[in-house]
Amino acid sequence: MADKNVVMEAKSFSFFYPGAEAPSLNKIDLPVMENKITAMIGPSGCGKSTLLRSMNRIHDLYPGNTYKGEINLYKADGSKENILKIKKENDFIRLRQEVGMIFQKPTPFPMSIFDNVAYGLRLSGVKNRTELADRVEHALKGAAIWKETKERLGESALGMSGGQQQRLCIARAVALKPRVLLFDEPTSALDPISTGAIEELISELKKEISVVIVTHNMQQASRLSDYTAFMYLGELIEYDDTEKIFLNPGKKLTEDYITGRFG
Ligand SMILES: Nc1ncnc2c1ncn2[C@@H]1O[C@H](COP(=O)(O)OP(=O)(O)OP(=O)(O)O)[C@@H](O)[C@H]1O
């Protein structure tokens, strides 16, 4: 059994896109610590998104990929599930409730603000109207967007600003009470003020949720994360406390990257 502070863990995980000769990820070992923020950094094409997407099997939406190794999700009772073994539709739905994903561009559904958040709840079997309304309110509060939305819950989510839409997407994920939330460059399409609000929100979320974030923004990784993984050409070069990675990296490649010598 893993250390009880580990909530997810990639073990010797390799990933091949169809037709590719070399793996896009080569034997990655990476823990995700509970109630902490783990940042994944590295130059374009090093495999950050592929690894992130593998953590809730989003990559399965594109057929033909192959992979080896394990990605384990540890349960509260200490048991573990290798999520790479999941095959049944219901288990995928459960996995994506437990391990949610926020994308670079906000992806609100073309429906009301309320229904955006209620969508996943209904899918997971919540039918009672009072319970739905309570959980939608709680999630919108949790994503720090309740004040802006409480008078307009019936309006289309598409009328919101980009930053508001991103917080709505976070509320939609939070409503399902995930254990892990995966963020794929969640602020790269946002202005600095919205970016600050999302960063603050992510810091708050870690009280209840473990977070993995892919970012190209070195300041964001150093401000926000507790642990940082530096990847290069499909390899995990270095993983450590964020402070160590940024102040005293163990590998020259890491140092060259964070000091902007390549990237
Ligand atoms: N659908 C795909 N089919 C084939 N190869 C792919 C596919 N998606 C990504 N790759 C390749 O896999 C490798 C890793 O890509 P990935 O998108 O995970 O990197 P990344 O570090 O997230 O990059 P970026 O920072 O630019 O988003 C790259 O060599 C890329 O060209």
From TrEMBL:
SUPFAM superfamilies: P-loop containing nucleoside triphosphate hydrolases
Keywords: ATP-binding, Nucleotide-binding, Phosphate transport, Transport
Residue stretches making up the ABC transporter domain: 8-258
GO cellular component, one term: membrane
Domain of life: Bacteria
GO molecular function, one term: ATP hydrolysis activity
UniProt cross-references to Gene3D superfamilies, sorted A to Z: P-loop containing nucleotide triphosphate hydrolases
Cited CDD domains: ABC_PstB_phosphate_transporter
Name assigned to this protein: Phosphate ABC transporter ATP-binding protein
Record organism: Sulfurovum indicum
